[in-house]
Amino acid sequence: MNPLAEKYLRKSALPTIFCPGCGHGTVLNAFLRAVDDLDIIARLALVRGIGCSSWTPVFINTDVIHSLHGRAIAVATGLKPHRWWAA
Amino acid sequence: MQEDIGYAAETETPCVIINVMRGGPSTGQPTLSAQQDVLQAKYGSHGDYELNVLCPSSVQEIFELTLRAFNLAEKYRVPAIVLSDEIVIHTREKLRIPFNIDVRERLKPKTPPETYKPYKALPSGLLDGMPTFGEGYRMLVDGQLHNEEGNRAGSDPIVSGKLVQRLCRKITDHAAELVDVETLYTDDAHTIVVVYGSVARSALSAVKMARQEGLKAGLLKIKILWPFPDQVVRKTIQNARKVIVPEMNVGKIFREVQRVHNNSRQIFSLPKLGGMLHTSGEILEAIKSEHLEELITV
Protein backbone atom coordinates (compact mmCIF):
# COMPACT_ATOMS: atom_id res chain seq x y z
CA MET A 1 0.00 0.00 0.00
CA ASN A 2 1.10 3.54 -0.71
CA PRO A 3 2.76 4.97 2.46
CA LEU A 4 0.26 7.88 2.52
CA ALA A 5 -2.62 5.44 2.27
CA GLU A 6 -1.08 3.27 5.00
CA LYS A 7 -0.73 6.31 7.25
CA TYR A 8 -4.07 8.00 6.75
CA LEU A 9 -6.74 5.68 5.39
CA ARG A 10 -9.42 4.09 7.54
CA LYS A 11 -8.74 0.42 6.86
CA SER A 12 -12.14 -0.80 8.03
CA ALA A 13 -13.85 1.39 5.39
CA LEU A 14 -11.90 -0.01 2.43
CA PRO A 15 -12.25 -0.75 -0.43
CA THR A 16 -13.44 2.64 -1.65
CA ILE A 17 -16.76 2.77 -3.46
CA PHE A 18 -15.58 5.08 -6.24
CA CYS A 19 -16.59 4.03 -9.74
CA PRO A 20 -13.93 3.30 -12.38
CA GLY A 21 -12.73 6.60 -13.81
CA CYS A 22 -14.15 8.68 -10.94
CA GLY A 23 -12.08 11.72 -9.98
CA HIS A 24 -12.83 11.55 -6.28
CA GLY A 25 -9.99 9.08 -5.70
CA THR A 26 -7.61 11.67 -7.14
CA VAL A 27 -9.14 14.34 -4.90
CA LEU A 28 -8.65 12.03 -1.90
CA ASN A 29 -5.03 11.44 -2.94
CA ALA A 30 -4.32 15.18 -3.27
CA PHE A 31 -6.14 15.92 -0.01
CA LEU A 32 -4.02 13.39 1.89
CA ARG A 33 -0.83 14.90 0.44
CA ALA A 34 -1.95 18.31 1.71
CA VAL A 35 -2.79 16.85 5.16
CA ASP A 36 0.66 15.28 5.25
CA ASP A 37 2.47 18.44 4.12
CA LEU A 38 0.64 20.52 6.73
CA ASP A 39 0.90 17.77 9.40
CA ILE A 40 -2.62 18.47 10.66
CA ILE A 41 -4.15 15.01 11.02
CA ALA A 42 -4.27 15.22 14.85
CA ARG A 43 -6.26 18.45 14.61
CA LEU A 44 -8.45 17.45 11.70
CA ALA A 45 -12.17 16.71 11.76
CA LEU A 46 -14.14 16.25 8.56
CA VAL A 47 -17.78 17.11 7.95
CA ARG A 48 -19.52 15.54 5.01
CA GLY A 49 -22.87 16.11 3.35
CA ILE A 50 -24.83 14.25 0.70
CA GLY A 51 -23.49 13.14 -2.69
CA CYS A 52 -20.54 11.20 -4.03
CA SER A 53 -17.99 13.91 -3.18
CA SER A 54 -19.03 13.44 0.43
CA TRP A 55 -17.73 9.87 0.35
CA THR A 56 -14.13 11.11 0.30
CA PRO A 57 -13.86 11.86 4.06
CA VAL A 58 -15.21 8.43 5.05
CA PHE A 59 -11.93 6.81 4.03
CA ILE A 60 -9.75 9.14 6.13
CA ASN A 61 -8.92 7.85 9.60
CA THR A 62 -9.90 10.85 11.71
CA ASP A 63 -13.13 12.13 13.28
CA VAL A 64 -15.75 12.26 10.53
CA ILE A 65 -19.39 13.29 10.75
CA HIS A 66 -22.07 12.92 8.12
CA SER A 67 -24.72 15.65 7.97
CA LEU A 68 -28.14 16.16 6.45
CA HIS A 69 -28.53 17.41 2.90
CA GLY A 70 -27.20 20.98 2.62
CA ARG A 71 -26.23 21.14 6.30
CA ALA A 72 -22.48 20.35 6.20
CA ILE A 73 -21.44 23.97 6.74
CA ALA A 74 -23.91 24.36 9.64
CA VAL A 75 -22.52 21.24 11.32
CA ALA A 76 -18.91 22.38 10.72
CA THR A 77 -19.81 25.78 12.19
CA GLY A 78 -21.14 24.00 15.27
CA LEU A 79 -18.06 21.82 15.54
CA LYS A 80 -15.60 24.71 15.33
CA PRO A 81 -16.53 26.52 18.58
CA HIS A 82 -16.59 23.19 20.37
CA ARG A 83 -12.96 22.59 19.34
CA TRP A 84 -11.98 26.27 19.27
CA TRP A 85 -8.44 25.61 20.52
CA ALA A 86 -7.66 23.47 17.47
CA ALA A 87 -6.26 25.42 14.56
CA MET B 1 -36.82 19.50 12.02
CA GLN B 2 -38.25 16.01 11.62
CA GLU B 3 -35.31 14.90 9.48
CA ASP B 4 -32.92 15.99 12.24
CA ILE B 5 -34.87 13.96 14.82
CA GLY B 6 -34.43 10.84 12.70
CA TYR B 7 -30.75 11.67 12.22
CA ALA B 8 -30.29 12.00 16.00
CA ALA B 9 -32.10 8.69 16.55
CA GLU B 10 -29.96 6.92 13.94
CA THR B 11 -26.61 8.37 15.05
CA GLU B 12 -27.67 7.90 18.71
CA THR B 13 -26.99 11.55 19.47
CA PRO B 14 -28.56 12.71 22.73
CA CYS B 15 -30.59 15.90 22.36
CA VAL B 16 -33.56 17.64 23.96
CA ILE B 17 -36.27 19.30 21.89
CA ILE B 18 -38.90 21.63 23.34
CA ASN B 19 -42.18 21.60 21.42
CA VAL B 20 -44.87 23.93 22.74
CA MET B 21 -48.00 22.84 20.94
CA ARG B 22 -50.36 25.38 19.43
CA GLY B 23 -53.38 24.92 17.26
CA GLY B 24 -52.69 23.69 13.73
CA PRO B 25 -52.42 22.69 10.99
CA SER B 26 -50.10 25.22 9.35
CA THR B 27 -49.88 28.65 11.00
CA GLY B 28 -53.09 27.62 12.69
CA GLN B 29 -53.69 29.39 15.99
CA PRO B 30 -50.37 31.00 16.89
CA THR B 31 -51.26 32.04 20.45
CA LEU B 32 -53.76 29.36 21.41
CA SER B 33 -53.28 25.96 22.91
CA ALA B 34 -53.59 22.44 21.45
CA GLN B 35 -52.30 18.90 21.86
CA GLN B 36 -52.36 17.98 18.20
CA ASP B 37 -48.67 16.98 17.90
CA VAL B 38 -48.72 13.98 20.23
CA LEU B 39 -48.42 11.44 17.42
CA GLN B 40 -46.09 13.59 15.34
CA ALA B 41 -43.73 13.70 18.33
CA LYS B 42 -43.40 9.92 18.15
CA TYR B 43 -43.82 9.24 14.46
CA GLY B 44 -42.65 12.49 12.85
CA SER B 45 -39.42 11.37 11.22
CA HIS B 46 -39.29 8.61 8.65
CA GLY B 47 -38.13 5.11 9.53
CA ASP B 48 -38.45 2.95 12.62
CA TYR B 49 -37.04 4.43 15.81
CA GLU B 50 -38.05 5.15 19.39
CA LEU B 51 -37.60 8.21 21.56
CA ASN B 52 -38.83 9.77 24.80
CA VAL B 53 -41.66 12.30 24.96
CA LEU B 54 -42.47 14.05 28.23
CA CYS B 55 -45.64 16.09 28.86
CA PRO B 56 -45.59 18.64 31.70
CA SER B 57 -48.83 20.04 33.13
CA SER B 58 -47.40 22.66 35.51
CA VAL B 59 -44.39 24.94 35.94
CA GLN B 60 -42.92 22.51 38.48
CA GLU B 61 -43.29 19.68 36.00
CA ILE B 62 -41.68 21.74 33.24
CA PHE B 63 -38.61 22.00 35.47
CA GLU B 64 -38.63 18.37 36.55
CA LEU B 65 -39.43 16.84 33.16
CA THR B 66 -36.95 19.01 31.25
CA LEU B 67 -34.24 17.88 33.65
CA ARG B 68 -35.44 14.30 33.23
CA ALA B 69 -35.43 14.73 29.44
CA PHE B 70 -31.72 15.64 29.47
CA ASN B 71 -30.92 12.66 31.69
CA LEU B 72 -32.96 10.24 29.57
CA ALA B 73 -31.42 11.56 26.34
CA GLU B 74 -27.94 10.99 27.79
CA LYS B 75 -28.75 7.53 29.13
CA TYR B 76 -30.53 6.12 26.10
CA ARG B 77 -28.76 8.24 23.45
CA VAL B 78 -32.06 9.30 21.87
CA PRO B 79 -33.87 12.58 21.21
CA ALA B 80 -36.09 13.49 24.17
CA ILE B 81 -38.99 15.83 23.41
CA VAL B 82 -40.53 18.01 26.10
CA LEU B 83 -43.99 18.27 24.60
CA SER B 84 -45.76 21.12 26.30
CA ASP B 85 -48.59 23.37 25.24
CA GLU B 86 -49.36 27.06 25.24
CA ILE B 87 -51.36 26.98 28.49
CA VAL B 88 -48.63 25.36 30.58
CA ILE B 89 -45.91 27.50 29.05
CA HIS B 90 -47.72 30.78 29.77
CA THR B 91 -48.58 29.78 33.35
CA ARG B 92 -46.81 31.52 36.23
CA GLU B 93 -46.58 29.39 39.36
CA LYS B 94 -44.34 28.84 42.34
CA LEU B 95 -41.34 26.70 41.47
CA ARG B 96 -39.44 24.65 44.02
CA ILE B 97 -35.90 23.87 42.89
CA PRO B 98 -34.44 21.01 44.92
CA PHE B 99 -31.11 21.50 46.67
CA ASN B 100 -29.66 18.38 45.07
CA ILE B 101 -30.33 18.03 41.37
CA ASP B 102 -29.62 14.70 39.73
CA VAL B 103 -27.72 15.51 36.57
CA ARG B 104 -26.39 12.66 34.49
CA GLU B 105 -22.94 13.44 33.11
CA ARG B 106 -22.06 12.22 29.65
CA LEU B 107 -20.44 8.79 29.91
CA LYS B 108 -17.06 8.33 28.29
CA PRO B 109 -16.05 4.99 26.72
CA LYS B 110 -14.49 2.38 28.99
CA THR B 111 -12.73 0.89 25.96
CA PRO B 112 -9.48 2.54 24.69
CA PRO B 113 -9.49 4.10 21.19
CA GLU B 114 -7.50 1.24 19.62
CA THR B 115 -10.23 -1.35 20.23
CA TYR B 116 -13.26 0.94 20.56
CA LYS B 117 -16.23 0.28 18.31
CA PRO B 118 -18.54 3.30 18.64
CA TYR B 119 -21.75 1.43 17.78
CA LYS B 120 -21.06 -1.87 19.52
CA ALA B 121 -23.89 -2.19 22.02
CA LEU B 122 -23.62 -3.49 25.56
CA PRO B 123 -25.99 -6.35 26.53
CA SER B 124 -28.52 -3.68 27.56
CA GLY B 125 -28.66 -2.43 23.95
CA LEU B 126 -27.05 0.86 25.02
CA LEU B 127 -23.67 2.09 23.80
CA ASP B 128 -20.35 2.24 25.66
CA GLY B 129 -20.04 5.97 26.25
CA MET B 130 -19.76 8.81 23.78
CA PRO B 131 -16.35 10.24 22.82
CA THR B 132 -15.92 13.83 21.72
CA PHE B 133 -14.21 14.68 18.45
CA GLY B 134 -10.49 15.24 18.98
CA GLU B 135 -10.13 12.71 21.80
CA GLY B 136 -8.38 10.20 19.56
CA TYR B 137 -11.31 7.85 18.92
CA ARG B 138 -11.48 8.71 15.20
CA MET B 139 -15.24 8.50 15.10
CA LEU B 140 -17.24 7.88 11.97
CA VAL B 141 -20.73 9.27 12.58
CA ASP B 142 -23.07 8.49 9.73
CA GLY B 143 -26.74 8.99 8.94
CA GLN B 144 -26.72 5.76 6.96
CA LEU B 145 -27.33 2.44 8.62
CA HIS B 146 -23.92 1.26 9.75
CA ASN B 147 -22.02 -1.58 11.40
CA GLU B 148 -20.46 -1.49 14.88
CA GLU B 149 -17.46 0.47 13.60
CA GLY B 150 -19.67 3.13 12.02
CA ASN B 151 -18.98 2.05 8.41
CA ARG B 152 -21.94 2.14 6.07
CA ALA B 153 -23.89 -1.12 5.91
CA GLY B 154 -27.11 -0.05 4.25
CA SER B 155 -26.78 -2.80 1.66
CA ASP B 156 -26.32 -5.51 4.31
CA PRO B 157 -29.82 -6.65 5.30
CA ILE B 158 -28.68 -8.50 8.44
CA VAL B 159 -26.58 -5.66 9.89
CA SER B 160 -29.16 -3.00 8.89
CA GLY B 161 -32.08 -4.97 10.31
CA LYS B 162 -30.32 -5.61 13.60
CA LEU B 163 -29.41 -1.94 14.00
CA VAL B 164 -32.97 -0.73 13.43
CA GLN B 165 -34.24 -3.37 15.84
CA ARG B 166 -31.75 -2.26 18.49
CA LEU B 167 -32.63 1.43 18.01
CA CYS B 168 -36.24 0.52 18.88
CA ARG B 169 -35.56 -2.12 21.53
CA LYS B 170 -33.15 -0.03 23.56
CA ILE B 171 -36.28 1.96 24.50
CA THR B 172 -39.03 -0.68 24.38
CA ASP B 173 -36.96 -3.15 26.44
CA HIS B 174 -36.58 -0.48 29.11
CA ALA B 175 -40.21 0.70 28.97
CA ALA B 176 -40.77 -0.26 32.63
CA GLU B 177 -38.05 2.22 33.69
CA LEU B 178 -39.65 4.89 31.55
CA VAL B 179 -43.03 4.99 33.27
CA ASP B 180 -43.97 8.26 34.92
CA VAL B 181 -47.64 8.60 35.86
CA GLU B 182 -49.62 10.05 38.77
CA THR B 183 -52.89 8.63 40.02
CA LEU B 184 -55.57 10.08 42.27
CA TYR B 185 -58.51 8.10 43.72
CA THR B 186 -58.11 5.39 41.07
CA ASP B 187 -58.27 2.38 43.44
CA ASP B 188 -62.07 2.36 43.83
CA ALA B 189 -62.99 4.57 40.86
CA HIS B 190 -65.90 3.73 38.59
CA THR B 191 -64.90 6.45 36.17
CA ILE B 192 -61.25 7.23 35.38
CA VAL B 193 -60.08 10.29 33.48
CA VAL B 194 -56.83 9.67 31.57
CA VAL B 195 -54.97 12.90 30.82
CA TYR B 196 -51.60 14.48 29.96
CA GLY B 197 -50.39 18.07 29.67
CA SER B 198 -52.53 21.08 30.57
CA VAL B 199 -55.84 19.14 30.46
CA ALA B 200 -54.62 17.44 33.66
CA ARG B 201 -55.24 20.77 35.44
CA SER B 202 -58.98 21.02 34.78
CA ALA B 203 -59.39 17.23 34.98
CA LEU B 204 -57.92 17.27 38.49
CA SER B 205 -60.46 19.79 39.74
CA ALA B 206 -63.26 17.94 37.90
CA VAL B 207 -62.34 14.68 39.67
CA LYS B 208 -62.19 16.46 43.04
CA MET B 209 -65.60 18.07 42.40
CA ALA B 210 -67.03 14.66 41.47
CA ARG B 211 -65.71 13.12 44.68
CA GLN B 212 -67.30 15.95 46.69
CA GLU B 213 -70.59 15.00 45.05
CA GLY B 214 -70.02 11.37 46.07
CA LEU B 215 -69.12 10.11 42.60
CA LYS B 216 -66.35 7.55 42.39
CA ALA B 217 -64.07 9.31 39.92
CA GLY B 218 -60.32 8.95 39.55
CA LEU B 219 -57.48 10.55 37.63
CA LEU B 220 -54.56 9.02 35.73
CA LYS B 221 -52.03 11.60 34.60
CA ILE B 222 -49.36 10.46 32.13
CA LYS B 223 -46.10 12.43 32.32
CA ILE B 224 -43.93 10.30 30.01
CA LEU B 225 -46.21 9.86 27.02
CA TRP B 226 -43.81 7.87 24.78
CA PRO B 227 -43.03 5.08 25.19
CA PHE B 228 -46.70 4.71 26.12
CA PRO B 229 -47.06 3.15 29.60
CA ASP B 230 -49.18 0.21 28.40
CA GLN B 231 -48.93 -1.94 31.53
CA VAL B 232 -49.65 0.80 34.04
CA VAL B 233 -52.57 2.23 32.06
CA ARG B 234 -54.07 -1.25 31.58
CA LYS B 235 -53.72 -2.08 35.30
CA THR B 236 -55.10 1.28 36.45
CA ILE B 237 -58.21 1.31 34.25
CA GLN B 238 -59.04 -2.40 34.18
CA ASN B 239 -61.75 -2.22 36.87
CA ALA B 240 -63.26 1.09 35.81
CA ARG B 241 -66.73 1.09 34.27
CA LYS B 242 -65.98 4.16 32.21
CA VAL B 243 -62.73 5.74 31.01
CA ILE B 244 -62.69 9.28 29.62
CA VAL B 245 -59.77 10.66 27.60
CA PRO B 246 -60.08 14.45 27.26
CA GLU B 247 -57.59 15.90 24.77
CA MET B 248 -57.16 19.15 22.88
CA ASN B 249 -57.13 17.23 19.60
CA VAL B 250 -59.54 14.97 17.71
CA GLY B 251 -58.73 12.01 19.95
CA LYS B 252 -55.22 10.64 19.53
CA ILE B 253 -54.00 9.18 22.81
CA PHE B 254 -57.59 7.91 23.16
CA ARG B 255 -56.64 5.24 20.62
CA GLU B 256 -53.64 4.19 22.68
CA VAL B 257 -55.89 3.80 25.74
CA GLN B 258 -58.32 1.77 23.62
CA ARG B 259 -55.45 -0.40 22.44
CA VAL B 260 -54.34 -1.41 25.93
CA HIS B 261 -57.84 -2.02 27.32
CA ASN B 262 -59.75 -5.22 26.68
CA ASN B 263 -63.14 -3.55 26.37
CA SER B 264 -62.85 -0.50 24.16
CA ARG B 265 -66.61 0.22 24.44
CA GLN B 266 -66.00 1.59 27.93
CA ILE B 267 -63.52 4.17 26.68
CA PHE B 268 -64.65 7.58 25.52
CA SER B 269 -62.73 10.33 23.78
CA LEU B 270 -63.57 13.87 24.91
CA PRO B 271 -61.98 16.04 22.26
CA LYS B 272 -61.84 19.80 22.40
CA LEU B 273 -60.69 21.84 19.44
CA GLY B 274 -60.52 25.55 18.78
CA GLY B 275 -57.70 26.46 21.14
CA MET B 276 -59.54 26.34 24.46
CA LEU B 277 -58.87 24.09 27.46
CA HIS B 278 -61.65 21.77 28.67
CA THR B 279 -63.34 23.41 31.63
CA SER B 280 -63.57 21.33 34.81
CA GLY B 281 -67.37 21.63 34.39
CA GLU B 282 -67.19 19.95 30.99
CA ILE B 283 -65.14 17.07 32.34
CA LEU B 284 -67.43 16.79 35.40
CA GLU B 285 -70.43 16.62 33.07
CA ALA B 286 -68.72 13.80 31.16
CA ILE B 287 -68.00 11.96 34.42
CA LYS B 288 -71.69 12.22 35.37
CA SER B 289 -73.11 11.47 31.95
CA GLU B 290 -74.75 8.11 31.27
CA HIS B 291 -74.88 8.85 27.57
CA LEU B 292 -71.44 10.19 26.82
CA GLU B 293 -71.77 9.63 23.08
CA GLU B 294 -74.32 12.47 22.93
CA LEU B 295 -71.99 14.90 24.68
CA ILE B 296 -69.15 14.43 22.28
CA THR B 297 -68.93 16.76 19.34
CA VAL B 298 -65.68 17.54 17.66
Write up this protein.
- The complex is a heterodimer of chains A (87) and B (298).
- With 87 residues, chain A is of the alpha+beta class.
- Chain A has one domain.
- Chain A is built from three helices and two strands; from the N terminus they run H-H-E-E-H.
- The longest helix of chain A has 15 residues.
- Chain A is globular.
- The model of chain A has no long low-confidence stretch (mean pLDDT 91).
- With 298 residues, chain B is α/β, with parallel strands linked by helices.
- In chain B, 33% of the residues lie in helices and 18% in strands.
- In chain B, the strands form two sheets. Chain B has a five-stranded mixed beta sheet with strand order 2-1-4-3-9. A five-stranded mixed beta sheet of chain B has the order 6-8-7-10-11, with helices on both faces.
- Chain B is elongated.
- The mean pLDDT of chain B is 94.
- Classes of the chains: A alpha+beta (87), B alpha/beta (298).
- Chains A and B meet through strand 2 of A and helix 1 and strand 5 of B.
